[in-house]
Specification:
Blueprint lengths: L1 H8 L4 H37 L26 H4 L1 H13 L4 H14 L5 H16 L1
């Protein structure tokens, strides 16, 4: 192997030979990295096609039309009443800031008990949460 190195490097000094070896190793690593990048991009393209939403033949997918909500207006106090604000803050604190869950629970109570005040719905949801936790 030593003889092969001398022929390859043409009898260069030891430092030059080491520099050439390091350079050759760097070029080899660069080729490996480039090959890896090509493989990752190929896999990315495969995964994009694999997870693309598929539509059954002959059917078209369209988003449902957003219907304006009727008869679900909330009173002005829902946003302005200080007691209401305090109850909202308490509810969100109990749910650790999960507004989607708070809205879902309030909507459910509105469906079960129509015609109550906004404060009543908030108090009911808070009461149910406290009851279920203890």
């Amino acid at each position: 192997m030593l003889k092969h190195r001398k022929i390859l490097h043409g009898g260069l000094s030891g430092d030059a030979t080491q520099a050439m070896d390091v350079l050759a190793q760097l070029l080899y690593l660069l080729r490996l990295v480039i090959n890896l990048i090509y493989q990752i991009s190929y896999l990315w393209e495969l995964l994009k096609h694999l997870f693309k939403p598929r539509v059954p033949f002959g059917f078209s997918v369209s988003k449902p039309q957003h219907q304006p909500r009727r008869n679900q207006r909330y009173s002005r106090s829902y946003r302005t009443d200080p007691k209401n604000r305090e109850l909202q803050r308490k509810l969100l604190e109990m749910l650790r800031g999960d507004t989607a869950t708070a809205k879902r629970l309030l909507k459910h109570q509105r469906q079960l008990h129509k015609g109550k005040s906004d404060n009543w719905y908030l108090e009911k949801v808070i009461y149910d949460l406290e009851r279920d936790r203890h």
